[in-house]
Design brief:
Blueprint: H1 2-28, H2 43-69, E1 76-77, H3 78-92, H4 94-105, H5 109-125, H6 130-140, E2 142-143
Parallel strand pairs: 1-2
Length: 144
């Protein structure tokens, strides 16, 4: 299960990483690239709020919802736990994509830095490490 979750994690984050690599390579090699997108004035605030939702509030809500539905069960099936973990990863891996948008659109420094910090938090915290998965299995009484 851990290997499948890691594959899923890297599959989702690889697109954003490749976008950052392409953007960085075009700047380093001075290749012709698209110009900075002029985003509407509400975009930085919108993407900051969306980043906070996808990095913190969304996964916390999903975790609370999962705990609520599993509260009366003595054992939780491994399939529902996998689905829960994939949901956490899916929601949180949107945040690095928002960081890419912030960099491409050259948001104000406060918004860009905040979105990047939130994306680093999401990348770090929701990585399916063995220690975190074992801890969650204990909390939710996973039946293997």
């Amino acid at each position: 299960m851990l290997i499948n979750l890691k594959k899923y994690y890297f599959k989702l984050i690889s697109l954003t990483i490749s976008l950052f690599i392409i953007l960085g390579a075009t700047k380093i090699l001075h290749l012709p690239t698209f110009h900075t997108l002029n985003a509407p004035s509400f975009f930085p605030t919108l993407f900051f709020v969306l980043s906070a939702i996808t990095a913190i509030a969304g996964p916390l809500f999903l975790r609370t919802l999962f705990a609520h539905f599993m509260r009366d069960k003595k054992n939780v099936s491994i399939d529902s736990f996998k689905k829960f973990q994939k949901g956490l990863i899916s929601i949180s891996m949107l945040t690095p994509f928002f960081a890419f948008i912030a960099v491409v659109c050259e948001f104000e420094k406060f918004y860009s830095a905040s979105i990047i910090i939130l994306s680093l938090y999401a990348i770090y915290y929701y990585f399916p490490s063995k220690k975190r998965i074992v801890f969650d299995k204990k909390i939710f009484r996973i039946n293997e």
